[in-house]
Amino acid sequence: MNNKISNPKPNLPTGMALNDKDIIMSLLTCLKEMEKNYVYALEEASNELLYNKYKDNFLAIIQMQRDVYETMFRLGFYELEAQDKTKISEKYNMLNQEYSSLQ
Q: What pTM was computed for the model?
């Protein structure tokens, strides 16, 4: 049984030239870096107005990052793997036990 969940991959040119996958992967990487930097800025913002501006920008960036990821999945650049419900339940129970032990 194939557990892969994916879309057909497009034919991309090879060689030294950038292709669509390279460009969109670069965009995703930049958005992830911006996301991390905004977290630092939010932690350090001492002014409420500045904090709210950073927060608005941060929320816009994480939405863009999600949109780019979903586009990449639709284009076949990402592949997901279906998991057995038993494995999901086991992982959930393990994490729930760890969480309970923290309280």
A: 0.65
Q: How much is the average pLDDT of 6-10?
A: 73
DSSP 8-state class, residue 15: S
Tokens linked to 80: 């997901």
In a domain, 87, yes or no: yes
Residues 6+ apart with CB under 8 A from 55: 42
Report d(CA 12, CA 56) in Å as an integer. Answer: 36
Range of the domain at 34: 18-102
How many domains does the chain contain in total? 1
Q: Tell me, yes or no, whether 75 lies in a domain.
A: yes
What does the alpha-carbon distance between residue 25 and residue 89 come to, in Å, rounded to a whole number? Answer: 32
At 56, is the secondary structure helix, strand, or coil? helix
Q: Residues 31-61: pLDDT tens digits?
A: 999 999 999 999 999 999 999 999 999 999 9
Residue 9: strand, helix, or coil:
coil
- The reply to whether 6 falls in a domain is no
Whether residue 59 lies inside any domain: the answer is yes
